[in-house]
Design a protein that fits this description.
This protein is an alpha+beta fold and about 525 residues long. It is about 15% helix and about 25% strand.
Length: about 525
Amino acid sequence: MTEVLLNGKYVGDVDSGAAFVNSVRDARRKSVLSANVNVLWDETANRVVIESGRGRLRRPLIVIQNGIPLLTEKHIKQLQKKEISWNDLVSQGVVEYIDAAEEENALVAFFEHELTPEHTHLEMSPLAMLGLSTALIPFGHNIQSARLIIGARNLKQSVGFYAANFPVRMDMDVNLLCTPQVPIVQTVMHELSDYDKHPSGQNIVVAVMSYKGYNIEDAIILNKGSIDRGFARSIYFRPAVAEELRYSGGLMDEICIPDKEVKGYKSERDYRLLEDDGIVFPEAKVREEDVLIGKTSPPRFLSSLDEYSLASNIRRESSVALKHGEEGVIDFVLVTENEEGNKLVQVRVRDQRIPEIGDKFISRHGQKGVTGIIVPESDMPFTASGIVPDLLFTPHGIPSRMTISHLVELVGGKVGALAGRYVDATTFDGEPEEVLRKELLTLGFRENGTETMYNGITGEMFDAKIFVGSMYYLKLKHMVANKLHSRARGPIQLLTRQPTEGRAKEGGLRLGEMEKDTFVAHGAALL
């Protein structure tokens, strides 16, 4: 007898596990059973596992019978004419959803020409096993799988054009790329996801070489001329919010320029940018500690309202000032009211971010790099045809990571830029590398992507041929301006009298026992 488990619970026995499983699958394909049921015949343990719970990851596959797919040309024509829908295919048993357990019993073919009588299912497209951001990576079949996932992670952190109505939105912590571009080397997913409406990178010329060792260990080198022309320039927005709250006893906050009698009055210089209504004016240049919205609150404890106390009605200062380490220009001021009908003020600060040493860039293949040096354009190496690369990338990041797609994209981008067309690099289904190399040869370049380059400082020809091409590079939201942190003196914790923790609280950097050991090893005994 074969035991049957339903959602992890034992429910009974059957005579033949294989026959039972086949009857369940037939019933499901005929819509007698719900399409949400998945069944596994585990021969080694001699049991049948049925799963119908929620929250399982399932994917659609085309059903195969006797080596022939059930999805026919007729179905495809009906779909194109919108006579039938996707749900009809599922209810007819042409397409079925498989979870990880049932996939153990399946043999799935990638392409139709690979089908044999043993196959049970056919992929819609090999791309269907990738998620949205993973499918955006070009030549995904020429890359180590872990790097593909890392590349998809990095894409989510890139600076781009996130929404067209950004001027009227008050979003926290927003980065906008000033001149985003659509990639030359694309996949099908770029078209399906309307990527041209929200691009997040730029096509640049990349050479694979070192330059005075400034791109050791994942660093990159940028051309100052490219930055001056606007490469990777972005804008950072952050809002400041204040509202007039109501307190018990009919007391209220007030948005205004605080009087000098107010408890905790800062200094006249801090309030210099406020207008008569207590709010900063647009296009004002602000630095840290400058007050953006002036506000006073009633005294904290009503017990201080003793009739003997002379300072009974002294209000306290509760203005909103720019955080430590920030600066920018006031971009937008919004005065409205909250749910209770009290005054609500939002002020958005804008800051232009020009690439600097320490900013993070990636290609779409998980090849991340931090800017190591910014070189004047006159000192950059140049090709025989006079092209100066925008970015220099170290060759040592390729062998151990096996991101061959990075190199293929360089060739593909070069072909696309010279031929004036987009290159299809869909995973498993794009233009083959040999075709791109032949086209590059007809365009008058070496088919392997290398060129003769000259030293920008001495003018001498390099002995080695340099691999150079066009590529889509992205700037990440991790910028040095957001992470720079230092302090001499500042706030301390009440309990331990140690400095506070964290950059936002203007905290210190803790030296633990291990850091102490490092200093001792360096001989810095008296630090």
